[in-house]
Amino acid sequence: MNAEALTGGKTSRYPGTPEQAAAAFFEDNKALLSIDPSALELTLKKEFSGVTHLQYQQYKDGLPVEFS
């Protein structure tokens, strides 16, 4: 199954830094999202109004995946 969107409920809360929480989320949902968490690279971190936004680039065979 490939997911385009997660809707209909909240995901679990993950402890730690935003980066640690994202890593745990990706690990817990790797099958649903069809991703290899080790192939993700943090490319952007922004904090705004007390919320941290993280952006990752996905790689496959060393090449960036477009629109991932």
Quick description:
The protein has 68 residues and is of the alpha+beta class.
Notable characteristics:
68 residues; alpha+beta; 2 helices
Helix % is: 10-25%
Strand content: 25-35%
Determine the mean pLDDT. Answer: 89
The value of Rg in angstroms is 13 Å
| Strand numbers in spatial order across the main sheet | 1-2-3
Helix and strand pattern: HHEEE
Total number of beta strands? 3
Separate helix tally: 2
- Overall body shape: globular
Distance between the termini: 16 Å
- pLDDT below 50 for ≥5 consecutive residues: which ranges? none
Largest sheet: 3 strands, antiparallel
Structural class by helix and strand composition:
alpha+beta
Give an overview in words.
- This protein is an alpha+beta fold.
- It has a domain at 38-68.
- Helices cover 22% and strands 31% of the residues.
- It is built from 2 helices and 3 strands; from the N terminus they run ααβββ.
- It has a 3-stranded antiparallel β-sheet.
- Strand 1 (40-48) and strand 2 form a beta hairpin.
- The protein is globular, with a radius of gyration of 13 Å.
Secondary-structure map with pairings?
Elements: H1 18-28, H2 30-33, E1 40-48, E2 51-60, E3 63-64
Antiparallel strand pairs: 1-2, 2-3
